[in-house]
Amino acid sequence: MSITTARKRYFTAELLNWHHNDNDRSLPWKSEKDPYKIWLSEIILQQTRALQGLPYYINFTTTYPTIHHLAAAKDEDVFRIWQGLGYYNRCKNMLATARFVANELNGQFPGTYDDIVALKGIGPYTAAAIASFAYGLPHAVVDGNVYRVLSRYFAIDTPVDTTEGKKQFAQLAQDLMAADSSSAYNQAIMDLGATVCSPRNPSCALCALQKNCIAYKQGMTTMLPVKSKKVQVATRYFNYLVLEKDGKIWLRKRGSKDIWENLHEPLQIETQKLVDRSAFTALPDVALLGLKEINYAGKDTQRLTHRIIISSFFTADVPGELILPEDGRWTDKKDMNKIAYPKTVLDFFKKNNYIIS
Ligand code: SF4
User: Fold this and answer.
1) 178, 187, 301, 308: least surrounded by Cβ within 10 Å?
2) Which of 15, 148, 197, 211 best tests ligand 1's pocket when mutated (most atoms within 8 Å of CB)?
3) Can 326 be counted among the known catalytic residues?
4) Domains of the chain (ranges plus CATH)?
């Protein structure tokens, strides 16, 4: 389907008009020009909604006001501030990039798209956002919001998760962007997608682009954008045994071969299905410990993009010596708030007063 130049111009004019006159979405990083802070906000907002990311952005920019502060921070402290955002690889890459920019580039954040996209943890979307917001460079962002707005306004049904779809939408987004106001254009389309043209119930009645939106006129908003395949979601069952001895809790750091790398957790045993207290107690690794009494302490479900984690919690007091994996250690309860945990573990510790926040 070919889109005329006039129609493209009309879209951009309507979008920018809405942005300048009626877009009242106010977020602290929107008026920011410091590339370091823009980069921080973009890393925090990958896979995270703006309102959820906001307190993290404030905490990071207050604790580490410059890239040198972040680069010099201890991993453990940064992970603790990141705690709750999930996707810990983002945090790991963020630290690596901060140290690279601080040490190898003398603290100067790169100023071209190609140099920005070459940094660790930065893909085309984040690079375009930083390039346009910090330097006004003409690079259009393309993300879920953009796919949604463009596929609906122009009624494009090419699946957005195919090579063809990605190419088509990237080219269209670039064509539509007003080169002299790339920052406003990118901000506008992201905000429209996040606040008006939302995934399930778009507010078409209030939308400034309604008059020329084909999906709206033809009643197709819920059919667009099109995806060719569904995400396969697997369920995993984690069983946590919280061992307590003399006011200390046994904790280990998760390794690099799985989710939640470098975060701490109690003794964990994964099973193929949900187990109750008696089935858990009978697991060979648990039975070997020879504990007198194990109590069931609750269950929590955490949804990630490709998996659902169901965590069951059990507790036990340890009277004497126990043979436990070598990678763990007994941690004083008063020090437990200094350590980073997966969200599900943190919630359990807080709810059950292991950690007083
Ligand atoms: S009219 Fe509706 S579908 Fe079209 S751009 Fe606006 S919110 Fe989205």
Assistant:
1) 301
2) 197
3) no
4) 5-223 (1.10.340.30), 234-351 (3.90.79.10)
